[in-house]
Design brief:
Protein name: SDR family oxidoreductase
Number of domains: 2
CATH superfamily of the largest domain: NAD(P)-binding Rossmann-like Domain
GO molecular function: aldehyde dehydrogenase (NAD+) activity
Strand content: 15-25%
Domain NAD-dependent epimerase/dehydratase: 3-216
CATH topology of the largest domain: Rossmann fold
GO cellular component, one term: cytoplasm
Organism: Umezawaea endophytica
Shape: globular
Distance between the termini: 42 Å
Number of helices: 11
């Protein structure tokens, strides 16, 4: 299968591209810079120059492919305005991809987040939130899944709060960056809230399985660790960086503060059973031992 991949040179995208190539697919990679184009070529993918906001390029990529995996996101959490801009850009790109694939029965695999369900671990049957700081992403993903009734084999791989590799990535990576800047490895509240996690290499396998086998309109959970306590995450980060570990106000984390403070474990039981997905790589707390002082 010739697969168009957005976000192909990021932490997750680079592992997805490698997984696809290792299993006989070819990859057309959206690349927004010369450096990204060179990285895509070095990985064995064909670069297509353009940014996520270049909707004509996005459509052209989908038109040349047998399937699409969408991973690109600006990841600008510096302010509510920046986050809203990133979500609007992604939503427009997803709409363009969907329009190009209408009636083709080709797969469109998009990325989502695991939902928060008070009092229990969320499952694949739970809807994602369409409210709050990242509610716009939930609405865009819902629109993609609705394309299942219009001839698109659309599906969503829901990623946990931390997708990690060699100690980097996700919410835990943000905690590490904040700790380096502030001199404190902080966590909101009492730190007993739980965040799910997955190694990027395991997540990449699930993206491939969804592309190859998932039924239209389905959602899947790329969750290896159902929920690590944030205090435990901050403790490993603090030890690795030689910094004190302390509770800090949730608003210290900017627009993500309310999300950081929430207990949000998640299950992947159905995903493991139906797609035969088995995580094999180190869990988050073990992987954080790779954080460099």
């Amino acid at each position: 299968m010739r697969v168009f991949v957005t976000g192909a040179t990021g932490l997750i995208g680079s592992t997805v591209v490698a997984e696809l190539l290792d299993h006989g697919h070819t990859v057309l990679a959206l690349t927004r810079s010369d450096a990204s184009a060179l990285a895509a070529e070095a990985s064995g993918a064909e670069p297509l120059r353009g940014a996520l906001a270049d909707l004509d390029v996005v459509r052209a990529g989908a038109a040349q492919a047998d399937g699409v995996v969408h991973l690109a996101f600006a990841n600008d959490f510096s302010s509510p305005e920046a986050l809203a801009k990133a979500i609007a850009e992604e939503s427009a790109a997803l709409a363009a991809l969907g329009e190009e694939l209408l009636g083709s029965d080709r797969p469109l695999v998009t990325v989502s987040g695991t939902p928060l369900v008070p009092g229990r671990a969320s499952t694949e049957a739970d809807p994602v939130s369409t409210d709050g700081p990242v509610g716009g992403r939930g609405r865009a993903v819902a629109a993609v899944l609705d394309l299942a009734s219009r001839g698109v084999r659309s599906t969503a791989v829901r990623l946990p709060r931390t997708v990690h590799n060699q100690g980097a990535g996700g919410f835990a990576g943000l905690l590490t960056g904040i700790a380096r800047r502030t001199g404190v490895s902080g966590y909101p509240g009492d730190g007993a809230q739980r965040w799910p996690a997955v190694h990027a290499l395991d997540a990449a396998v699930l993206f491939r399985l969804a592309l190859e086998h998932a039924a239209p309109g389905t959602s899947w959970h790329a969750v290896a660790d159902e929920g690590d306590e944030v205090r435990a995450i901050a403790t490993v980060i603090g030890r690795r960086l030689g910094l004190p570990v302390e509770s800090v106000p949730a608003d210290s984390f900017g627009p993500l503060g309310p999300i950081f403070a929430a207990d949000q474990p998640s299950s992947s039981t159905r995903t493991r059973q139906e797609l035969a997905w088995t995580p094999k790589h180190p869990g988050l707390l073990e992987d954080l031992e790779n954080v460099q002082p």
